[in-house]
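Changelog-adjacent note: as of this version, every example in the card shows the full chain rather than a window. The one below runs 94 residues end to end.
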Amino acid sequence: MDSFNFDSEEEANIGFMDDVANNSMSEDSDNEVDFIDIDRLRLAYQEAISNNGMIASAYKTMKRNYKNACKEIEFMQQEKASLNGISLKDTELL
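Full-length structure tokens:
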């Protein structure tokens, strides 16, 4: 924040908020797309579509792995319960 002599705390807060807003606006402008350059826009769109496909594929894989892990945990719980002579319904009460 610029160094100013403020007469009151309220003026100091307003100056601080203005400084923060200006910094946020300059950071946002770094992420803006120049709509005049169609080739860059097309490339950014294709990259976004490609990333979307990779994310969807990774999500499906993780979802499948999660389901398999849940089934494996359930199977292991059943095995443990049967070794201890306890039914699965009894373990759910614990």
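Structural remarks: The chain has three helices and no strands.
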